[in-house]
Amino acid sequence: LQADDLVDGLRILKRIGGHFYPGRLTEISAPDIYGIVVDKERGKKPHIFSQEEVLNEAVLETTPETVNELRIGARVCAFWSNQMNYLHPGTVVAPDIDENFVIIQLDDGDGRDIHIDQVRYLPEDYPFVVPDGDPTIGSRKGVSTLLRHETDKQERNNADRQNQ
């Protein structure tokens, strides 16, 4: 994402811990302050982020149309289950026997065949996401709690930098 890409209604994936949450960008006080309305979240209230945070922690939501356009080694993220509203990062390892499925090795070590409709691109050079310390593993926290946790952590880090 680039600053010029940030427009109201843009579909993005916001990274929180080791997962990506799909949502829609809203302009709060552009070009400095933006909101992200996370899909399927209660209340539909935007979570507020600076432009820098959006550019560093979100990626454009883009969907492959066919399995054939996914090259082996491509960085992607995918919905693991219809019960979860977040995507797991991983790497394409092979096409499946079924032309509508692709085999993905997730960064957390799991691998499986996933329907093309459940796959989203990550930027080509997107780094491996280390799941250690992921606040969602073994947790029932909702995305609002996780976003508040991330915002609180960033505010503490900023305060620490100012006090140095």
Description:
The chain has 164 residues and is of the alpha+beta class. It has two helices and ten strands. The protein has helices at 51-57, 143-163, and strands at 11-16, 19-29, 33-38, 47-50, 58-60, 75-79, 87-95, 101-106, 111-115, 119-121. The strands form two sheets. A five-stranded antiparallel beta sheet has the order 4-3-2-1-5. A hairpin with a 2-residue loop joins strand 1 (11-16) and strand 2 (19-29). It is elongated. The two termini are 31 Å apart.
Please give the structural blueprint.
Elements: E1 11-16, E2 19-29, E3 33-38, E4 47-50, H1 51-57, E5 58-60, E6 75-79, E7 87-95, E8 101-106, E9 111-115, E10 119-121, H2 143-163
Antiparallel strand pairs: 1-2, 1-5, 2-3, 3-4, 6-7, 6-10, 7-8, 8-9
Number of helices: 2
Count of strand segments = 10
Q: How far apart are the termini?
A: 31 Å
Helix-strand topology string: EEEEHEEEEEEH
Strand content: 35-45%
What would you call the shape? elongated
> How much is the radius of gyration in Å?
16 Å
The main pleated sheet reads as: 5 strands, antiparallel
> Approximately how much helix is present in the residues?
10-25%
Q: Classify the secondary structure makeup into a structural class.
A: alpha+beta
